[in-house]
Amino acid sequence: MAISTVNPATGEEIKTFDALGDEEIDRKLQLAAETFREYKKTSFADRSRWLTRAAEILEEEAEELGRIMTLEMGKTLASAIGEANKCARGCRYYAENAEKMLADEQIKLEGARTFVRYQPIGPVLAVMPWNFPFWQVFRFAAPALMAGNVGLLKHASNVPQCALAIEDIIHRAGFPEGAFQTLLISSGQVQAVIDDPRVRAATLTGSEPAGRQVASEAGGNIKKTVLELGGSDPFIVMPSADLDKAISNAVTSRTLNNGQSCINAKRIILHEEIAEDFTRRYVEGMAALEVGDPMSENTDMGPLATPQILDDVSGQVDKSVEAGARVLTGGKKGDGPGNFYPPTVLTDIPEGSPAYREEIFGPVASLFRVRNIDEAIALANDSDFGLSSSAWTNDSAEQDRFIDELEAGMTYINRMTESTPEIPFGGAKNSGYGRELSHFGIHEFMNPKTVWVDASGEAADTTGAE
């Protein structure tokens, strides 16, 4: 894919960029390595001041930054402005809490002063996706920078202006030039960067195949990775649920970010007692959404990010219908310009069809009926993915079962899944490993060094020592 800005609402190519050559990449990696040697010595106070300034810039320029996001990947302008402000919130969270999160952890042993000290590991490569072009980056960059690491960003090729804007914000905030750099490179150039000994770790948010490739390359170099991959998240509704709230959240969750989120509610699993009522009202809600110009304040949902994504989503729906699935609303892409696909609801979905188990990265909901909680949990877990899950019930026993038995990195009860700086974010199974956000996220790329200062004056007891 060319590194370029193509307006997904019109198909117009706005701006193109040349990929960095080998010499330019080497220069940036060397700058990262040299910067790290000094940057890791900076104080938490300095880093906090710079990251707080980054938050201020994000808030001050939220509308301008939002327009860049909307232009490049098609999310509504309102949601893009909200994303910029969310990034500011993430920056402030780590600016205020990182020092406490990384404080020495004391271990009590008689005759010794023992503790764990968290130390940064060096330059970290972040391979990031286009769907949340600012938030995905800042939820890596904010903790990494506060921890004393330096970042290298390989952003998706269709959001180069977002990538450059993020680098500019971080530099204007006061961070040294080499503390965070954007690498405008193709996917084919990523392996060489991972192989480079100056790069110490990698994090990727993206597809399962991309995650396998990056993890394999990093593993061959004995470098840690954090992966946040795809999801086919279940959204389970039981008879005791508040249906009004569940239906509203199901519509919002499935069409959030034009249906292009790993944590969208993709498989909606309904207890048979409420299935008919829920389905009727849910279809009405999906069909009522306004699809159109993402810059307009009247638009609920904009286009998909690229023509390829549009073709993929359309193809998955068509194959599912051919296999026997029934369309309740939507289901056909438009004839006009832009990558528009309508909110779509499928039911009577046969096992083996794309809508049954695959992730559909667009505004397509798969509806299923079950007779009881056992069937609901079994169906929810019948997936290679395990990113998040949402269950709607006011029965405390059912809540406990969902919390204990759903195979996912996250379970939300009576709430749609979301990411927020205060809580850890990540998946299980083929949805990846490791965590972002909260104190878990800042610890991922640290060396937890064990320190033992002997004070006993006695010889060490080596019985059973390794």
Oligomer: single chain
Task: Identify the CATH architecture of the largest domain.
Answer: 3-Layer(aba) Sandwich
Q: What sort of overall outline do the alpha carbons produce when their principal axes are compared? A: globular
Number of E-state strands: 20
Give unreliable regions as ranges.
none
| The CATH superfamily title of the largest domain | Aldehyde Dehydrogenase, Chain A, domain 1
Helical region count?
15
How would you characterize the largest beta sheet? 7 strands, mixed
Describe the structure.
This protein is of the alpha/beta class and 466 residues long. The protein is 41% helix and 20% strand. The protein folds into two domains: 4-229 and 431-451, 3-Layer(aba) Sandwich (Aldehyde Dehydrogenase, Chain A, domain 1); 234-413, 3-Layer(aba) Sandwich (Aldehyde Dehydrogenase, Chain A, domain 2). It is built from 15 helices and 20 strands. The strands form five sheets. It has a seven-stranded mixed beta sheet, with helices on both faces. Strands 7-6-5-8-9-19 form a six-stranded mixed beta sheet, sandwiched between helices. Strands 3-4-20 form a three-stranded antiparallel beta sheet, with no helix packed on it. Helix 2 (44-60) packs antiparallel against helix 4, helix 3 (62-73) runs antiparallel to helix 6 and helix 9 packs across helix 10 (272-287). The radius of gyration is 24 Å and the shape is globular. The relative contact order is 0.14. The model has no long low-confidence stretch (mean pLDDT 97).
